[in-house]
Design brief:
Layout: H1 13-28
Length: about 50
């Protein structure tokens, strides 16, 4: 079980993202790579055919 280390009850986006990245790092042992989330040219996300 991975528990958030944050006790911040606010809805600040930055602190929420930091908390999520911290949990990911503790779960996997590596930093989250946002580059892997970038949309690739051949990816299909409901786009109309060109």
């Amino acid at each position: 079980i991975f528990i958030s280390r944050s006790y911040d009850a606010t809805t600040h986006f930055e602190t929420t993202c930091d908390d999520i990245k911290d949990i990911y790092r503790r779960m996997t042992g590596s930093e989250f790579d946002f580059a892997e989330m970038e949309r690739k040219k051949q990816d299909i996300f409901g786009d109309a055919a060109e």
